[in-house]
Amino acid sequence: MKKISDEAAPFPTAAPAGGRHVMIVAGEISGDTHASGLMREMMTQAPDIRFTGLGGPLMRKIAGEGVDDWLDSAAVMGFSEVVAKYGYFKKRLDDCVAAVAVKKPEALILVDYPGFNLRLAKRIRAQGVKTRILYYISPQVWAWKKGRLKQMAKTLDLMVCIFPFEKPLYEKSGLRTEFAGHPMMDRVVTLRRPWEREPGLVGWFPGSRVQEVRRLFPVMLAAAKIIKSRVPQARFAVSAANEALASTMRDLAETAGMPEARAWIETGTVYDLMQRAEAGVVASGTATLEAACFGLPYALIYKVAWPTYMLAKVLVRIKFIGIINVLAGREVVQELVQHSCTPEKVAETMIELLQEPEKRLALQQDLAGVVATLGEAGSYARAAELVLKAMN
Fold it and tell me: What predicted TM-score, i.e. pTM, was given to this entire model?
């Protein structure tokens, strides 16, 4: 699969021949997943749609050469990490603005990835380009900068959100907003297996970015030693998003003096492992909701560079970082964040879940109650219908 370099132009030099031209931008693995689901449904409902843009391999599989796979460069996390690549992102932003101005697509669809996409929308509006700007998968500005809501209302033509509480928040600012339901409901139907959970199996889910894996997997490795010393029957498995991350995990296991951990590493089995494990630890992000949808009793962990963490402490206006806890308005899932993200605390939490079946069951019931608020399957089809209606 061809990937762009830091110097490569992000878009083809011309709009696709024939059909209605739509440009779409996503910058993370989850965004690639959701964008591709939306694209597929849009092409089902309007076969003459043609896509160009920035995204990942799933989007590229649907659109072909029109979408460049930039995920290796784009999927960075944290303030200091983004600053380190400022020049790269500025060039990408300039190129995108120029491409929209020249090609004048019928619509520009922005999928999550707010640090880049909100700037892109603002720049395009400032230039007076008439392209409709539609947002799918709401950026969580309600968590860290509610003041941006009014600016977004001036910039965007439509927000399609996936959490029910977001609709009134955006509508209050004057932005037309629709709730399409959460895409995970579709995936649960497809991916659910009739398995029994394996006693003593702990699932590790250290994230889909190499930065996350380097910070969190060593904590998991050290926690595994503690758990094994107190629960001898415990076993471990870790799901890597791809082979590159699996290789990084193997290197980290060697560095930690735990070569046996290489046998724990699986690739592409994240949803299977969420249904097999008796308990688990999940990096903050999309996977925490996925784990909840599959009923995995888990704890959330989060650890970033200290400058990023201190900045987040100032900016974030909500009590919880896990979306399940945000939806519930209380701590359903235990959050082990930054200084609390230690091998000892992780091990203690897992030992408790492994040894107390009543606590596991109560957590699963709480998770099911929260998940039930996210709507029914068919969210991509509903989102595509809303986007096409806005285009028309």
Answer: 0.74
